[in-house]
Design brief:
By secondary structure, this protein is an all-alpha fold. It has 2 domains: 90 residues; 325 residues, no CATH class. The protein has 19 helices and no strands.
């Protein structure tokens, strides 16, 4: 009898997750407000303290925070099995929408695509405001500001004089690792609490490591675009601290500049469309990976959407399955207490570098596409003043008002069609 009651409760929980996934616009902060409303206050599956504790756990890990929060709550309610199905239900609506948008984008006529032009400055504005909001709370902390500036300089400003070194995806783990190391060395406030009862199930962490290394080896040996793109997205999901806006910087580096899978304009358009899609912002990987495989036909593009979705969400999910059961003991270790502020600070710098990098292709005019050396600027009218002024105005409105992201995207679409 009890088993049937539990299964019914789990089914009801999954139905609630699907409802949330269909209306969850905005980033983690908006998602958390919706989780609190539906899962805590209305359905009373959890307490507010349980939700906040879970949120704090997930912020320690790379990956999509909102997704990891829901996986953890599903795990808490019904174990790993329910946690896994919670992930599938949460991602499903955004996967369907972004897959459809990738096919729609490929098949649109050029004049219709021109109607999307206001989406691009809007998407840049989203990232600029996200960077401001991440860095703002750090202004009184010299170490955090210093690490954020270091991260921004390495990932953005130094990329042109040091192009052969900086133009590599390895720069992101390097910046995160050095930020964590500096924070660990300088931050002396954390204390170590020994816990001899710590019992770790290493299965999920080992699986994470096997996939991380194995996918890189398979991609190198086979040179299959499917294997390579799976590895790329899995690596992104393994390294992203700070949410979807930091992910944009990694996709820009790998897909636009390093491999030329997609154009900068396509990435920025995808980001804008993702802002109008309910669910996790990480679903942009569905769109970009689908576009990266469009030359392989309908089935190749559809496979790309599946690969992008699975690979981007898998690492964060495996890590939360490993960490959540041992969190109570693990959070006492000083390594996490001392190094995590450095990871957060450098992540904020990477988000700021994302804003800089996605601004370049639409804020300035270039002789050769995707070559952002300032010697490549056109000689006459190098600044696209319409886009620059639009971005400035949008940043003010986005920062000062509480109008949800989808409304801004809809307004940009309508304005684009009117003025095309």
């Amino acid at each position: 009898m009890g088993s049937k009651i539990d299964k019914f409760k789990h089914w009801q929980f999954l139905r609630e997750i699907f409802k949330i996934a269909s209306m969850a616009f905005g980033g983690p902060e908006m998602h958390m407000a919706l989780f609190s409303k539906r899962l805590v206050h209305e359905k009373k599956y959890f307490t507010q303290n349980e939700l906040l504790e879970t949120f704090s756990i997930c912020q320690l890990l790379p990956g999509p925070t909102s997704t990891q929060v829901l996986i953890s709550l599903g795990y808490k309610l019904g174990g790993a099995f329910l946690g896994f199905f919670t992930l599938l239900i949460w991602v499903l609506p955004s996967f369907i929408i972004m897959t459809a948008l990738s096919f729609l984008y490929v098949n649109l006529a050029s004049d219709t695509l021109h109607s999307l032009r206001f989406i691009r400055p809007l998407a840049v504005s989203f990232i600029i405001v996200a960077a401001i909001r991440m860095i703002g709370p750090m202004l009184n902390n010299k170490l955090s500001i210093g690490l954020a500036l270091y991260s921004f300089c390495v990932c953005a400003l130094l990329r042109h004089p040091l192009e052969s070194y900086i133009k590599t995806p390895a720069i992101f783990p390097f910046v995160l690792f050095t930020g964590a190391l500096v924070s660990f060395i300088i931050n002396k406030e954390a204390k170590f609490f020994s816990d001899k009862k710590l019992k770790v199930n290493w299965g999920f962490l080992i699986l994470f490591g096997v996939i991380f290394i194995g996918s890189a080896i398979i991609g190198k040996i086979t040179n299959s675009p499917y294997a390579i793109l799976f590895e790329n997205n899995f690596r992104f999901g393994s390294l992203v601290f700070g949410g979807g806006n930091m992910l944009i910087s990694m996709i820009f580096e790998q897909f636009v500049q390093f491999k030329n899978y997609i154009s900068a304009e396509e990435l920025i358009t995808g980001l804008g469309l993702a802002q109008a899609t309910p669910g996790p912002v990480f679903s942009i990987a569905t769109f970009t990976t689908g576009l990266a495989l469009r030359e392989y036909g309908v089935w190749g593009q559809l496979a790309g959407c599946f690969i992008g979705t699975a690979a981007i969400f898998l690492p964060g999910s495996l890590l939360i399955f490993w960490l959540y059961p041992i969190w109570t003991s693990l959070k006492k270790f000083r390594f996490f207490q001392r190094s995590f502020p450095g990871i957060i600070a450098t992540s904020a710098g990477i988000v700021a570098s994302s804003a800089y990098l996605v601004f370049l292709p639409i804020g300035l005019r270039w002789k050769v596409e995707n070559s952002f050396f300032y010697t490549n600027l056109v000689n006459q009218n190098p600044i696209n003043w319409l886009n620059v002024i639009t971005i400035m105005v949008l940043c003010v409105f986005l920062y000062k008002t509480k109008i949800p992201s989808p409304y801004w995207v809809v307004m940009a679409l309508i304005l684009g069609f009117i003025l095309r």
